From TrEMBL:
Belongs to the DapA family. This is 4-hydroxy-tetrahydrodipicolinate synthase. It is an enzyme of class 4 (lyase). The gene is dapA. SUPFAM superfamilies: Aldolase (SSF51569). It is found in: Cytoplasm. It comes from Halopseudomonas yangmingensis.
Length: 291
């Protein structure tokens, strides 16, 4: 089972929005050196919504090749078209990804039965471990715990990233499916508490900037060392908050630019971090020791 601090990796781009392969290599090396437990490639933080199908596949392949089996690679392959999700998931399987992360279909607002059939179809179509991803704040689609419980009976559905930040929801999910599949946090600020309840890790934005600390936080929580995990979390809390001062991944890409790890590139409709947000994000970076 994949566990620990799983970074929701940004996709580096140049000033014109082209993919920056050298920066991607630097980021992967940074995470391998700093103890990140797994890499999630081309998820929400990786700007999957603005990558073309071929780009999406190539980024996954490049990440898998460079990681070379040293830590797990989870490929973001969700889509609001079931056939497109199958195509991306098969592409990830074919290049050796360890698992796939599949977001609930966005914009078209399927019913709970539609969600069940969507994920069941992908699981049956592609023989790779699959992690469900529920983030209703971005998709306008909330997959309810009872639907997750139905899906947990499918052999290659192995986990769920629950990104609501609602610990009552997390407790219900762990009670319903925790013996069958892994429950991961998708909310940095509440990840410690979810793991202490029985979750298996955190798919993290903050880990882009503070990978060693997030690894240590998750390791402590998984070991039941609540005091250490909560102490690290308190130290990181300014960053948890400021990395969402504007839409993710705007702040985290700007933070990584200040750290010299990536350039300024981002694709419309996202725009660079507003000037009024520079000081708060810089302050958080200094408080947490990233700069």
């Amino acid at each position: 089972m994949i566990s620990g601090s799983l970074v929701a990796l940004v996709t580096p781009m140049d000033s014109r929005g082209g993919l920056d392969w050298q920066a991607l290599e630097r980021l992967i090396d940074f995470h391998l050196e700093q103890g990140t437990d797994g890499i999630v490639a081309v998820g929400t933080t990786g700007e999957s919504a603005t990558l073309g199908m071929d780009e999406h596949k190539v980024v996954i392949r490049r990440v898998v090749e460079q990681v070379n089996g040293r830590i797990p690679v989870i490929a973001g392959t969700g889509a609001n078209s079931t056939s497109e999700a199958v195509e991306l998931t098969e592409a990830a399987r074919s290049v050796g990804a360890d698992a796939c992360l599949l977001v609930t279909p966005y914009y078209n607002k399927p019913t709970q039965e539609g969600l069940f059939q969507h994920f069941q179809h992908i699981a049956r179509a592609v023989a790779i471990p699959q992690i469900l991803y529920n983030v209703p704040g971005r998709t306008a689609c909330d997959m309810l715990p009872e639907t997750v419980e139905r899906l947990a009976g499918i052999e290659n559905i192995v986990g769920i990233k629950e990104a609501t930040g609602d610990l009552q929801r997390a407790r219900e999910l762990i009670d319903r499916v925790g013996e069958k599949i892994a429950v991961y946090s998708g909310d940095d600020a509440t990840a410690v508490e979810l793991i202490l309840m029985g979750g298996k890790g955190n798919i993290s934005v903050t880990a882009n900037v503070m990978p060693k600390a997030m690894h240590e936080l998750c390791a402590a929580a998984l070991a039941g060392d609540a005091e250490t995990a909560r102490r690290i979390n308190e130290q990181l809390m300014p960053l948890h908050k400021m990395l969402f001062i504007e839409s993710n991944p705007i702040p985290v890409k700007w933070a990584l630019q200040q750290m010299g790890l990536i350039g300024e590139g981002m694709r419309l409709p996202l725009t660079p971090l507003s000037a009024r947000c520079h000081t708060p994000v810089l302050d958080a970076l200094h408080q947490c020791g990233a700069l």
